[in-house]
Each structure stands twice: as structure tokens, then as C-alpha cells.
Amino acid sequence: VESLGLNVTRSIIYDLRDDCRNRTKPLCNFGLLTIDEQPKPSYYAVQRVCEMLNGALPSDGQVVVTKITPSKPAITTEVKSYLFQNKEGSFLLGYWLVKRPDVPLTADISVRAQGQGKNITVSINRDVLTGLQPQQQTPRSVDDGIELRGVPLNNYPTFLTIRGVQ
Fold first, then answer.
1. How far apart are CA 70 and CA 34, in angstroms?
2. Which of 147, 72, 63 has the alpha carbon at shortest distance from 102?
3. How far apart are CA 55 and CA 94, in angstroms?
4. How far apart are CA 33 and CA 93, in angstroms?
5. Are strands 140-142 and 145-153 parallel, antiparallel or unpaired?
6. Beta partners for 47?
7. Taking residues 63-76, what's their average pLDDT?
8. Measuring CA to CA, which residue among 42, 40, 38, 17 is closest to residue 27?
9. What pLDDT score was predicted for residue 49?
10. What one-character-per-residue DSSP string does 107-143 give?
11. Is 166 strand, coil or helix?
């Protein structure tokens, strides 16, 4: 996600398959597949992110994420985010905590689209790790955009889809 957000043209996965069966040796277990070539949870997470970002490019600024406010304000500076536009013209916001939180967190996210704040819709995409669809939040209109309250804030990317921007 970060590579695409920074316009890096190629990213490499360090290890497709585990190198050995020894669980006590960390370097043996970096694969997306087990040594027997069975998919691990990380394999499905990478697959979901690749499907979601297929053909997406970093956004040109039509949509601006004005604020991501975690439910625990002291960690505001530790949130990363990148905005993409996909082939269909929708925008995808990927955001995550840089550090693993001690407790589950949520965030309030404000989104503004150039002169079109009242026409845009936002939905939370399925969790990239579990594949489950989180409960959707009802956005509320604010000034020139919308705000979502209580969206999941994890130490791995969560994606919002933003539609209705002309």
C-alpha cells in the first residue's frame, strides 16, 4: 500500500514460501505459504489488497482527507494514510496505525471533495486480514464534506471507498 502511495513502480515480497518448519527460527517463517505450499493468512491479506488496488493510482487531489482522529488522541501522529483512484473512478483511502495499539481503537475520518461534499458516499471495505465486512457507519454531512465516526483503526491497512466525485 505504501509503495503504491509513494509511486514506487515495483514491490517485492521477501519470501513466498517458508524456508523450514522450525517455529523458533523467525527467518524460517516469513513466507506467504507454508513450506508445504499451503496459504497462510498473510497470503489472503496480500491477495485482498492486490484485488482492491488493482489498477489504482495515487489520487490527484480531487478528494482530500482532511482529518483522521483516533479515539485515543495521543497517537494522532502515528496514523499513515494514502489516497488512490481506481479504474472505475472511485477513490480508495488506505489508512493504518504505525504501531500496534494496546486496546482496540476507532477513528473519526473527515473527507472533502472539491465543491461536491454533499454528493459523495463513503463505505468501509472488508477487513484485509479476516475478509469480514465491518459494520458500516452512516456518514454525516459537515461543511464541504462528510465525516465518518467510529471506523476501525488497525495496525494494518483499512480501506474506505469514496464514490460520487465527478
1. 35
2. 72
3. 15
4. 28
5. antiparallel
6. none
7. 72
8. 17
9. 93
10. EEEEEEETTTTTT-EEEEPPPTTT-PPPPPPPPEEET
11. coil
Q: Distance (Å, rounded) from C-alpha 94 to C-alpha 3?
A: 12
Is residue 87 helix, strand or coil? coil
The set of long-range contacts for 44-53, using a CB threshold of 8 Å and a minimum separation of 24, is: 44/131, 45/128, 45/129, 45/156, 46/13, 48/126, 48/128, 48/131, 49/1, 49/128, 49/157, 52/92, 52/125, 52/128, 52/159, 53/1, 53/4, 53/84, 53/86, 53/92, 53/94
Averaged over 148-162, what is the pLDDT?
89
Count how many residues are written for the chain: 166
Q: How many CB atoms lie within 10 A of CB 16?
A: 11
Q: Residue range 114-134: average pLDDT?
A: 79
- Measuring CA to CA, how many Å separate 121 from each of 60, 87, 111, 145? 19, 17, 10, 10
Contact 147, 85 (CB under 8 A): no
